[in-house]
Structure formats: structure tokens, C-alpha cells
Amino acid sequence: MASNITTAISSTAFSLPISASALGGIVILTLAFVLGFPGNLFVVWSVFCRVRKRSVTCLLVLNLSLADAFVLLSAPLFLRYLAGGKGWEFGSAACKLVHYLSSVNMYVSIYLICLMSLDRCMAVTKPFLSQRMRTKRSLLVLLLVVWVMAFILSLPMPFYRSNLKKTFHNNITLSFCIPYHWRSVNHKVFQYVFETIMGCLVPFTLINVCYISVICRLKSAKFQRKNKGSRLILLIICAFAVFWLPYHIVNIIEVVGLLTGSVSVLNAARTARPNVTAFAYFSSAVNPILYVFAGSSHIRQAGLSFMAKLFEATNSESRSTSFTRSSRANSSPDETSVLHTMSVKLGKAFKGKDKERSSSTAEKYQGESVFKTLESAEQIE
């Protein structure tokens, strides 16, 4: 009886020391949760309570904020795991489920950013086609595809996580939620390579292709304010790279260590993994900060409704573009017949001048349409 009481007291008082790598992860996770969770909830509240008519971009941002907020809900569990010194205290099912849902939301966040990039690219390079395809029905289908694809891509995660027990020198046993690959190098290589290809290479390539197309289109158009759009595009690409590339670089390093059998390379990757994982979590806290930066001009006038002003500006830009298109389509044919009669009487010189005037007007209209669409995309980012 006395020995059981002594063991219980010692196990309660026992705690593992916090390593330097775990300390860095704790700091990053804490900042991500404190800044990102309320920030994403504010975006969700703005969309549901302050936005009257939700545009396509508005729904994309809503899903992105929901995914980011859901990811950050798991931060307290990981903080307890890293800082508590008691191991994983929430059971095997929670170990698998939390990592599975975190992986789902990671893929959702990344591919939602791809959808936003593709939407920006279509709006700038193909503005009229974008107006026809940019409907809520098509967006809902794409969102469903993204969520289903994320659930499927995350299926390997619960199989490669296990709640393993370890006994220390004072007969105290603690559980640890760690990667488990049945001592198979092939399973480790498959997980990390698959995660890097589907979670980084594919979406990052798509984002770069979209933004390169946008930059090329802007350079071909003679706008005085084209540098502003280019800077914002580069900022988004750099933010994506800064927060996600370190995590996938560690994956590649560990794969190299596994294939070459280098113990030093494996130790370096395993030491850096807690920090880069926490750093990737911090990406879920960055988007609300970018929205605040983008809507800073509306804060004084609208207060807490500044986020709604961004979405309403997007709607107004879409309506003005469609109105201009419809007015051009419904122009009176009498004007054309009068111009044709005058051109016949005055000769070919008038025709040449009329063609030059109409072509310059068309180029001007096309440039203004692309520029307005770009401004709309810049505001929402």
C-alpha cells in the first residue's frame, strides 16, 4: 500500500525537462494561437455578420479562415504535450485524430490559397471568361473538391502516428504521440516524399505559374500603378515559402538521411522538426494580419466593419465591370449605321481614323477592365 502511494506521488511529481528545440516550438505555437485564433474568428464574424452580399472571393477567404482557425484549435494540446513534461496525456485515438485533422486542414489551407491564386490569374489574364465562370455554384463545387481531396490526401497520417509508451529509470511510464512506421525505411520515405510533393511542390508550382502569368500580363499592359500589384504578388509568394518550405526541407533532409544511412543527417532533421512544424502552424496566423494590412485605409471610416468594406469593394468592382460589358453589348445599332454612311461619303481616310479611334478605345477599355479586376483582387488579399 505504501509503495503504491509512493509510486503515485513520484509519477505525479515527475516531469521531463524541456529541450531547446521544444522551447522554440512552444514560443511559436503560443504566438500563433494568441494572434491567429482570434484573428481568424474575427474574419469569420465579419463575413457572417457584416457582409451583406458574399462574393466568390469572400467565400474563399471564409473557408481559409475556418480552416486556419480549426488548425489552431489543436495548438493547446501540442503546447501541453511539449511544455507539460508528462508525455501525451490524451490517449491513442486523440493522438491519431488530432494529427489527421491537422493534416486535413493543412491541405485545405494550401489548396484554398491555390484557388485564390487561380482566381486572381483568371481575373487579370482572362477578365471576360472569369466573369462568366466566377459563380457561386462553380465555387461551391471547387470547395467540395478541395475538402474531399484534403481528407483523402491525409489518410496516411493516422497510420503513421502511434501513442507509444516509454519506461524511465525510476519505473515511471509515459506515453508519447510520435511517428511510427513499423521500423520500415520505405514507409518513412513514402510519407515524407508524398507529403512534400502534394503539400508543397504541386501547390507551390501552381501558385508560381499563376503569378508569373499575372506579372507578364501586367508588364504587357501599360499601367502606371502596375508595381503595386507586383509587390503584393511577390509578398504572398514569399509568405507561403517562408512558412512552409522549412517544414518540407526537413522532410527532404530526413529522406536523404534514411536513404544514405547518415546518422548525423537524421539527427539534424529530427532536431529541427518540432520548430519547423510549429513555424508551419504560424502560417495560419498570418492571413488575418495581411487582411488588416490590406484594409488599413478603411479602419478609420468603418471601424470593426473594415473587413466588410473590402468584400463590398470586390462586389462593386464586379458589378461595374458587368455593367460596362452589358452597356457595350446593348449599344444602339443606329450609331453604327450613321458612322457607316458618313464613312462611305467621306472616303477611306475617315475609315482609317475611325478604326484607329475604335482600336485605341478598345485597348483603353481592356486595360481599365484588367486594372479594375486586379485592384479588386489586391483589396481582398
From TrEMBL:
GO terms for cellular component: plasma membrane. It is found in: Cell membrane. It is a multi-pass membrane protein. The keyword Cell membrane applies. The chain crosses the membrane at residues 20-48, 60-79, 99-118, 139-160, 189-211, 232-259, 279-299. It holds the Pfam family 7tm_1. PROSITE patterns: G_PROTEIN_RECEP_F1_1, G_PROTEIN_RECEP_F1_2. One of its GO terms (molecular function) is leukotriene receptor activity. Keywords: Cell membrane, G-protein coupled receptor, Glycoprotein, Membrane, Phosphoprotein, Receptor, Transducer, Transmembrane, Transmembrane helix. It comes from the Eukaryota. Residues 39-291 form the G-protein coupled receptors family 1 profile domain. GO terms for biological process: inflammatory response; phospholipase C-activating G protein-coupled receptor signaling pathway; positive regulation of cytosolic calcium ion concentration. Belongs to the chemokine-like receptor (CMKLR) family. Belongs to the G-protein coupled receptor 1 family. This is Leukotriene B4 receptor 1. It comes from Scomber scombrus (Atlantic mackerel).
